[in-house]
Design brief:
The complex is a heterodimer of chains A (287) and B (339).
Chain A: H1 3-10, H2 20-41, H3 43-64, H4 78-95, H5 97-110, H6 113-118, H7 126-152, H8 161-188, H9 192-201, H10 203-208, H11 221-229, H12 231-243, H13 254-257, H14 259-283
Chain B: E1 5-14, E2 17-27, E3 32-36, H1 43-50, E4 58-63, E5 66-67, H2 72-78, E6 79-82, H3 94-104, H4 109-122, H5 138-149, E7 156-160, H6 168-183, E8 187-192, H7 195-201, E9 204-209, E10 212-217, H8 219-226, E11 230-235, H9 241-251, E12 257-259, E13 264-268, H10 272-285, E14 290-296, H11 300-308
Parallel strand pairs in B: 3-8, 3-9, 6-7, 7-8
Antiparallel strand pairs in B: 1-2, 1-4, 4-5, 9-10, 11-13, 11-14, 12-13
Helix pairs in contact in B: 3-4, 3-5, 8-11, 9-10
Classes of the chains: A mainly alpha (287), B alpha/beta (339).
Amino acid sequence: MSTTSTSTARRAVPPPAHGGLVQAARDSLVIAKRNLIRMTRIPEIVLFGLIQPIMFVVLFAYVFGGAIPVPGEPGNDAADYREYLMAGIFAQTVTFATAGAGAGIAEDMHKGLVDRFRSLPMSRGAVLTGRTLADLVQTTLTVVVLVIVALIIGWRAHEGIPKAVGAIALLLLLGYAFSWIGALIGLSVRTPEAATSGGLIWFFPLTFISNAFVPTGNMPTFLQHVADWNPFSATVLACRQLFGNPDGLPSDAWPMEHPVLASVLWSVVIIALFRTLAVRKYRSAAT
Amino acid sequence: MPGAIYAEGLVKTFGKVRALDGVDLDVPEGTVLGLLGPNGAGKTTAVRVLTTLLRPDSGRAVVAGIDVLKHPNDVRHVIGLSGQFAAVDEYLTGRENLQMVGQLYQLSSRDAKARAAELLERFNLTEAGDRTAKTYSGGMRRRLDLAAALVVSPPVMFMDEPTTGLDPRNRQALWGIMQELVAGGTTLLLTTQYLEEADQLAHDICVVDHGRVIARGTSDQLKAQTGGERVEVVVHDRDHLGTATEVLRGFGKGGTSVESHTRKVTVPVTGGAKLLAEVIRELDARGIEIDDIGLRRPTLDDVFISLTGHAAEREAESDGDPEPAGGPGTTTSDGEVAK
């Protein structure tokens, strides 16, 4: 008499009910819901996520604004810089989700939740996909608030609603891509604190060596090349063009000539690469 | 015929450390195996391998008749894991935690909901069910964690140090739940640092150290090796250690063990509290000032002393100690307790 077969037969063990993709989607939504519930229970995190970009708007627009000329704009006043600046702030804000995803996943590792999830018969990518989807919801909320603040300080989208919505879609896609970088960082460090600082070390160079805050024309040639090919710059320039904001006379590097396409390509490449790496890391995650 | 949990020659190395160094296990269906050992002995690594969280370098493992390495996802349908930390989301309510786990076990959301309510009731958490787990006491969290592991009534359960850090009342409560589970036919692998816990719950005990099983048997067999109560004295002045050892030897029923850095002397005794009073009087008469004295049940260290002739290494890693506890001693290479 086989002891093992009776033990499995006696209990109702649910067989895998549906195909891989359906299950992956369902599991991801269960995890996304969990993370969204968490956000409502810790509203401080959402709130701080809103305050930071607003602070950046105020600092750059009013402290640096008058001192940074925007090439190609005849008036060359602070109002031009505010129009120029907003796309950069938007892009910086959406990519800041990286830190949230990283810290959140590192915390799940630290507290043993990842072990629990990995011992369940659930889709292997769902814990990460669910987290990044929840971050996307938070990022969308942040962008909405930021757009309102931008409108208050005098920024406008001049090319009509459809193009403005397109620009925001590019921003959210970039933010989603960056949250996969955060997921990989979160899986690779030992503590949530390390994930937060690990998420910031490269974040400021990446966002500053770009066209986000200042036109790249005055940078040393080497940095200018870096800035031109920075995924960040492509999205920022695409947004400026779609919003009809001053673009600061970009160079003729390929991503600067085709910013919308470059922005989409960069985001897709980042998602494909970092999702693969993160899911692989998750499968073998050791706490 | 392999049991509900079966492992053969499991090896797992992390760098130079052999966390598992050829572990064999065989747990018959409906029984409890206690995996006993100090921190870093390899208990958790063994659990992680058997619950599909970690791939071993070599060896074979079968759980509920399913090959762990070949079909990990099928194994996940039939196991429950309750780890060292209460792995619950503290910002979710107890109910939300259980529903989430139910859905991830691929129950429909209606079934997950019903099951969550059932488990909250069973684990006496109904009242707290709609509060976030953050507000729970340590004991409540452990209960919630265990409930999460039981969502699909898995036939095979793994519990990694389930009572570490719990107060005695909560520990007792958890033991009761485990006994119920086993009475219902569940096969349970339990890791613990406490001999008493293994004693209460386990049919068979494996003592592990440095990634090897150094002894196995029933708790009675192991206790026969270990002896009964001990008196433990911490002297105030290290210079008095020698005299104190001499005094204790007079009362003892076995070899004394001395830890000079903690100024502690231990000796197995029979005679209980009455004897303790005599020891105190005698020490006092000799003018030995003591910081602490107590009567205690055999601990894991005592098992180790008894089995291997030296104390268990409590630190997670003992890099300065090349000779592991499984060396020449009272155990044979296949791990049977020497009679």
